[in-house]
Specification:
The chain is mostly helical and 270 residues long. It has a single domain, classed as Orthogonal Bundle (MetI-like fold), CATH 1.10.3720.10. The chain is 81% helix and 0% strand. It is built from eleven helices and no strands.
Length: 270
Amino acid sequence: MRKLKKKKTLGQRLSSWYLVVILLFIYLPIGYVVLFSFNESKSLTNFTGFSFRWYENMFQDRTMLQSIWNTVLVAVIATAVSTVVGTIAAIGLSKAKRIVRNVVLEVNNLPVMNPDIVTAIGLMLLFISVKFQLSLTTLILSHISFCIPYVILTIMPKLRQLDDNVAEAALDLGATPWQALTKVIIPQIYPAILSGALIAFSMSFDDFVISFFTAGVGINNISMYVYSMKRYNPSVNAMSTLIVVVVTLILITVNLIPRIKDKKTQKEEP
């Protein structure tokens, strides 16, 4: 029994160290970028002193600020549209016949399984064939097109877990189809909708290949701006740090709000 206990504790220690190594492998590069965003010199290996120099340069660089604005604008619009369309499509598919649902889901998987270069060239040729000039509009449409499948794939598993009798009971009690949708179905799949929106936002924010082929002349997002740099600009470290901070705050807010609401409802209940 003692030997078994020793083996078990050893395995637990190894698993703990393994987890620590994985976390360091993931977050150490981010910490490195954050640290050197405050470096006084251009060196990426030697920290010479604390300074906000690169943050000042970032806010003075109009091209970088424009690329950040384009990235955020495209990501927000693509996330909003793809979340609404993907949610409605997923709910419709959950009520469709099995054959129709399976066929549509298989077609929906194609953009996800396709290499980005294939999707990018296909969208570019589509816009050119219909004589639609490449611009910020084509960039937004392209991002919406590849974000929708991710939203549908995220929401469908949650819809499979729902009890169809709940919505039917709401209709029998006098609720309209719109009320059944907004007050019965959507509240139950809200976590999946939020997850799909976050995935769509991250996919749009991070995209390079599709953006490179579908953006117009003079339109850059963050990834295209970094790719086009002739020399590495340390201001990118400052920009990356701000992005990490904003994303972290969003994730904390998204996770805290439901918990706060749950605590309030528990206090209000007798």
